[in-house]
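note to self: dont lose this again. the chain is below, predicted strucutre after it. 284 aa total, dont forget to put it in the shared folder this time
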Amino acid sequence: MLYISDETIERWIKEDVPYIDLTTLTLGIGGMKGRISFKAREFTVLSGVEEVLRIFRKLGVTELQSLPSGTIVNQGDTFIIAEGLAENLHMAWKVSLNILEYCSGIATRTKRMVDKAKAINPHSTVVATRKSFPGTKELSIKSIIAGGAYPHRLGLSETILIFKQHVNFMGDIHNLAEMIKVIKGKACEKKIIVEVESIDDARLLIESGVDGLQFDKVPAKDLRIIVAEIHSLNPNITLLGAGGINEGNIEEYARTGIDALVTTSMYFGKPSDIGVTMENIQTP
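---
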């Protein structure tokens, strides 16, 4: 589903084990054979499982059973079991748990938001911004997809998304409207989305030929009126709502008829509660 390099996997391991596992070394238990199990302590949408299994393989830990990312598990469900030497299990333990808890937390919040939005408007799409914590983008993208959402924009190279901050260097919205055909000529295979603040600006840009409009921090009750008016002018234009959309108000925004609900909120919240047990299976 998502490509993550071997170099990245090894970097995650090295970050937690820069040299040795001093505790396991001093206890003298490293050569004993053991089993590790991961169990959900609450309703959880799994994410990060495949990366954890790759960590296991790097460290000589053998997977016995697992459930893939995107699987829904409930309290008490065991979703990964693996075996290996105690020294390898302990090296894999915390980095694996951190990935699973943080990624599954994002996936679970995403799933709740997607379900709420789809229940109101089955044609709406929940899309996540690129405001994930730096260095975590790969896992964040994997997690929102596992929860049923899509990335809004993966990076600056991907789409043409024009904000007020861009327009400030161009004079005003009228100057931008005059440039739309020029911009399309420079990147003819790309759609042009512009963030707007008023219905007047929206009308101007629709006439200029933009492909989509994004409304930031517009209250849902006002956005519903704006969406209806714009669709009467151009029923095919893509409309996005952004700014402050979260699990508590996403149903209200879904009722506006907006095509995409742009949000950051799934990135922030508590990790999923996942338990880990290790047992000695060394034959006496």
